[in-house]
Design goal:
Elements (H helix, E strand, L loop, with lengths): L6 H8 L32 H8 L4 E8 L5 E5 L11 H13 L6 E7 L2 E2 L2 E2 L2 E5 L8 H13 L4 E2 L3 E4 L32 E9 L2 E7 L12 E6 L6 E5 L4 E6 L6 E7 L3 H15 L8 E3 L6 E7 L3 H11 L2 H14 L7 H16 L20 H12 L9 E2 L16 E9 L2 E9 L5 E9 L1 H5 L12 H23 L2
Helix pairs in contact: 2-11, 3-6, 3-7, 4-5, 7-8
Length: 495
């Protein structure tokens, strides 16, 4: 048996960046690296050659390992902490699964805080948020119908909305422009991912606008968000916060003939209460205008909406990269660990401590659970540690979205021999990718790639953060580099 060369030894010997060819007697004149089936020759030179060829400014850091053994195969700057962007959501998923469990469900309730006699509630009606990030208008419609089915036809007291199961956060990332729907407010109740639908149409007398909470079954107008069209070119949107109303204006010269977009909600409890009030009225139950309460009621539960299991919610979060879901499940896990966090950052720091204890991620420091804040830092080595450990139990890869490999023109290669399941992460001048790949011969690797030009990002004005100059081209170069590295690893370690 001593005369046999193990596959692991061969892989180490073939990596020219690890052992130079001159270290072997009678070194061959041609490279011993295997060919990547269907893709031509394997990449020559070390990883620095691939990075330099990308033309990417800023920093590049990565680490890759055998997913089964944990043996690190190649790394550049693996201890460098960079913004993970939405790759952080993969860690949030692990945090929520570990603390809450895959079968955990969130419950939204309608509670009677007072006696009911002959269909009349002589007390308050409370819509109780339970931290469900997926609550939508359809669910509120069913709750309103179930309230009627429970025999309630009149409410003599107040109508309240409880949002105190989680801290209130005005914006996931305050550095983002006010109108961006991916940075809404967070609280213990959410509706339609805390976004309101703005629609406009141009007619003979100017524009007509509508703000609603539409779903595939309902289209209720909302009173807590208002829009006015102003005769101007810039700014496209302005926002003013008042105690009960989100007041928006939009530039007429930016609207065209018609269109729509989702805008963030800054008053989630009032938004949910506004919509539930409308849907209750459609069922013959008239409610007062909603009032927000942070005190959980202890009355009679009249109707309950239960979310899908957490595992299903997380799969959707990782597929669509929904920031609100990440923040709500992350904070829910922190609450379950022993106390309500004072802020989003405090909850993220608790998750960072959990990651250090659970996976040895001592170089990780997060400011949120979604990766939207660019002050978060994760090292590739830390992320790789977590990926290798969870690969043994198989809890993450089934939740990750397949990563599309593309040709030189950007077209998806459906028959590519390398299969990748990973979480992408994209901010302006920040791009990350972390997950698992299966090479042509079935070898499974875990990897984490982080790239960032923090200097360029820091120079972006707040008003320009939606589409800053040069960001899209930079991010495209980063994604091409990610694929080149994956193909390199497939050639060196798995064919």
């Amino acid at each position: 048996m001593s005369g046999l060369i193990t596959r692991r030894f061969l892989l180490g010997a073939l990596g020219a960046s690890v052992v130079p060819a001159s270290g072997f007697a009678n070194a061959p004149a041609t490279s011993l690296r295997p060919q990547l089936r269907g893709l031509g020759a394997a990449p020559q030179g070390g990883p620095e050659t691939v990075i330099k060829a990308s033309g990417l400014s800023g920093e590049v850091a990565f680490a890759v390992a055998d997913a089964k053994t944990g043996l690190q195969l190649e790394a550049v700057g693996s201890t460098t902490g960079l913004p993970p962007a939405s790759v952080a959501k993969a860690l949030t998923a692990l945090y929520a699964l570990d603390v809450l469990g895959a079968g955990h469900v969130f419950r939204t309730q309608v509670v009677a805080d007072g006696p009911i006699k002959n269909g009349v509630l002589k007390g308050d009606l409370v819509l109780v948020g339970g931290g469900d990030p997926t609550l939508d208008t359809n669910a509120l419609g069913k709750l309103a119908a179930n309230l009627k089915a429970a025999g309630v036809r009149e409410v003599r007291g107040k109508f309240k909305v409880y949002d105190g199961s989680l801290p209130y956060v005005r914006s996931i990332d305050p550095e983002q422009p006010d109108h961006l729907g991916y940075s809404p407010s967070v609280s213990g109740i959410a509706l339609n991912f805390n976004r309101v639908h703005f629609e406009w149409k141009r007619g003979g007398n100017g524009y007509t606008v509508a703000m609603d909470a539409r779903s595939n079954k309902y289209k209720p107008r909302v009173a807590m968000a208002q829009m006015q069209v102003k005769s101007r070119r810039l700014p496209v949107y302005t926002y003013e916060e008042t105690p009960r109303i989100d007041k928006w204006t939009v530039a007429s010269q930016a609207l065209g003939k018609g269109g729509s977009r989702w805008l963030p909600v800054r008053k989630p409890a009032l938004y949910a209460g506004d919509v539930f009030q409308t849907l209750a009225r459609a069922n013959g139950i008239v409610l007062e205008n909603p009032k927000v309460t942070r005190s959980r009621p202890a009355g009679t539960v009249l109707a309950i909406h239960q979310s899908a299991p957490l595992q299903t919610i997380l799969k959707g979060m990782l597929k669509y990269s929904t920031n609100l879901t990440a923040e709500m499940v992350g904070m829910s896990a922190t609450v379950a660990r022993g106390g309500k966090p004072s802020s989003l950052k405090a909850s993220a720091q608790e998750m960072s401590r959990w990651a250090a204890s659970k996976y040895g991620m001592s170089g990780t420091s997060l400011v949120d659970h979604s990766g939207l804040g660019d002050a978060s830092r994760v090292t590739p080595q830390d992320m790789l540690r977590a990926l290798v450990q969870v690969h043994k139990v198989g809890i993450l890869r089934p939740l990750l979205k397949p990563f599309a490999m593309r040709d030189s023109k950007g077209r998806v290669l459906k028959s590519h021999p390398i299969k990748v399941d990973a979480k992408t992460g994209t901010l302006n001048f920040v791009s990350g990718l972390g997950g698992f790949m299966t090479a042509a011969d079935g070898t499974e690797l875990a990897f984490a790639i982080f790239t960032a030009d923090t200097a360029k990002r820091s120079r972006i004005k707040r008003a320009d953060r939606e589409v800053p100059e040069g960001a899209r081209a930079w991010n495209r170069r980063s994604k091409r580099l990610q694929q080149k590295l994956i193909e390199r690893w497939g050639a060196l370690y798995g064919s």
